[in-house]
Amino acid sequence: MRAAVGTVRPVAAHSHHHVRTHDGIDWSSRLNALRQADELDADARRVVARRIVRPLPDHPTVLDVGCGAGGMAVALVEALSARGGGTVVLVDATPELLDAATTAARTAAAYEGDTAKAAVKVRPVLADLVTERPVDLAGPVQLVWASNVVHHLPDQRAAVAGLVEAIAPGGWLALAEGGLEGKFLPWDLGVGEPGLQDRLAAARAHWFALMRENTEGSVRMPGGWNTVLAELGMLDVTAFSFLVDHPAPAKQAVRDWAVERLRWHHEVAGHLLHPDDRRTTRRLLDPQDPAYLGLRDDVFLLMASTVHLGRRP
C-alpha cells in the first residue's frame, strides 16, 4: 500500500508477480484480508468520505494514496457522485491491490440507480511513493487521502511533505494514522491464559518497531502527526476519530476477519509470544478445534482510527 509512473498503463496489463514493498511485506498476499476489513469498515468510511469531501470545490480531484483493496476509493466515489462528480486517482505500488481497487471504484462509479448521480472518473496509477512524487502522478489535487500508508515508508515526514506538495492551494490532506488498536477477543477465551489480546497487541507493536528499524533508509518521526502537518505549513490542523464497532454475537464476516487478523498476528509476531500463547493461537486458528475462532459467538470487532486534517495555504 505505498505508492511507478505518471503515465497510466492499462491496469489489466500489469505483470502479476509477488513483490515485497519497502516494509518487507508481500501486500498481494494480503488482498483477501484487506477486502474483509473493507467490508466491515464500509459504513464508517462512507461517513468519513462525506465529511472530507464536503469543503471541496465542484468536480474536485481526489488522490487516494496506498489505496489497498479499494474500500475508501468506493466511499470517495459515492461521496463525489452525491455532490456532482469529480475524479478519483488511485495510487498503489502493488499491482494486485491496484487492480482490485480500480475494479471496485469503477463499479461504484458506474452505479446508475439514481439518475441524479454524476459520473466520477477513476484513474489508476501504479507507483512507488519512495521514488515518485505524488504531484507528478496526479497533482495538483483538492484532497489527498492517505490511510495507514505513510508508516510503511522509510522517511515518513518526507512522505507527508510529498503529499502536501501534490495539493492545490486551499486543498486538504486527510492522513489516517494511529487510533486505538483493534480488539476482537474476549479477555478470557476459556483456553490458554486470559489476556491474550493484550499480549498479541504487545507482540505486534514490537514487530512494528522492528519493521520500521529494518526498513532501508528508515528515518524516525520528529513527533506527532499534527506537529509534522504544522511544520509543513498546513493550516487548520485538527483531527477526528471514527469507530468501527461490530459487537458480539457478530455476523460470520466478523468472525472470518478475526481469524484472518489472528493468523496475520501469528505470522508476523508469533515468534515474539510465549510458547503457551503460540499454542493457544494455533488452537484458535484450527477449524477442527472446539475453540476455533471462526465458530465462536464471543468474537467482535472494536477499533478506532484517527484522521489528521490540514489545509494547504
Any overview of this molecule?
With 313 residues, this protein is α/β, with parallel strands linked by helices. The protein has one domain (11-311): Rossmann fold, CATH 3.40.50.150. It has helices at residues 31-53, 71-81, 95-109, 134-137, 156-165, 196-214, 225-231, 252-269, 275-284, and strands spanning 61-65, 86-92, 120-126, 141-147, 167-183, 235-246, 301-311. The chain has a 7-stranded mixed beta sheet. Helix 2 links the parallel strand 1 and strand 2. Helix 1 (31-53) runs parallel beside helix 2 (71-81), helix 6 (196-214) crosses helix 8 (252-269) and helix 8 (252-269) packs antiparallel against helix 9 (275-284). The longest helix is centred in the first third of the chain and has 23 residues, at 31-53. The protein is globular, with a radius of gyration of 20 Å. Mean pLDDT is 88; it is low at 1-19.
Helix and strand topology:
Elements (H helix, E strand, L loop, with lengths): L30 H23 L7 E5 L5 H11 L4 E7 L2 H15 L10 E7 L7 H4 L3 E7 L8 H10 L1 E17 L12 H19 L10 H7 L3 E12 L5 H18 L5 H10 L16 E11 L2
Helix pairs in contact: 1-2, 1-8, 2-3, 6-8, 8-9
Largest sheet: 7 strands, mixed
Instruction: Calculate Rg over CA atoms.
Output: 20 Å
Strand fraction equals 15-25%
CATH architectural category: 3-Layer(aba) Sandwich
Distance N to C terminus: 28 Å
Keywords: Methyltransferase, Transferase
Pfam families: Methyltransf_12
GO molecular function: methyltransferase activity
GO biological process, one term: methylation
